[in-house]
Design a protein that fits this description.
The protein has 260 residues and is mainly α. It is built from 12 helices and no strands.
Amino acid sequence: MMRELNGIMALAFRDITKLLRDRPRMISTVVFPFVFIGILGGSFQASFGSEMGFNLLTFTFTGVYAQTLFQSAAQGIISLIEDRENDFSQEIFISPISRYSIVFGKVFGEAMVALFQGLAMIIFAFVLRIPVTPMQLLGLLFVGVIASLFGAAFGMLIMPNLPNQRAANQIFPFVILPQFFLAGVFNPLRNLPWYLEFLSRISPMRYPVDFTRNIFYANSPEYSAVVLDTPWQNLSIMIALFVLFMIIGTALFVRNERNR
């Protein structure tokens, strides 16, 4: 047990170290969410804030916060393809730890990397004077961990089964970008046509975004206007999908490595 835990922590620490050495990635992962929140959220609030009945800058912040952590953790799993191309994954597989520990170490590492962005976004929220109470701050940290782990598990399902990094970088935007709108990151989802409601329900990003708003807007007058489902519904679905993504993703990844 201790050996497995040490292996998980070593792989996770490797991803964190890679982030600290990759300055362009550090800058880009911090700048783009700020652009979404500051420009989109600010413009939405100025144009439609009085009509909606709640602050759209705060609404956008909560959506982008969950979306960024989910997307960053999922996209970080692309490095598994890089490890495969450099034969590093083969070296890991001969280590005396289980394959599930190897995969979970990667998922945990990318989740921690995504949380770095989350902390930076919370600081930026104070810069924009978005009201955040101490309880909301604790809630954001909690849902940040959930969103990051869930996003990494989703990435585990998609990324390692692609042939190379070029294919991953081309396909990933088509998988993730539609979810921005189907998950309600920027726009409240109300009275959708049946086909968009169906697509929204099968969009994994919907659940961490809505869960974040469940926690952030709890006991506030805006709660019923900004949330879609109960927190227990969102959490239950994410737990079930996390287990499913991890089992299927790991099985496919191990099979691909054996067939090399």
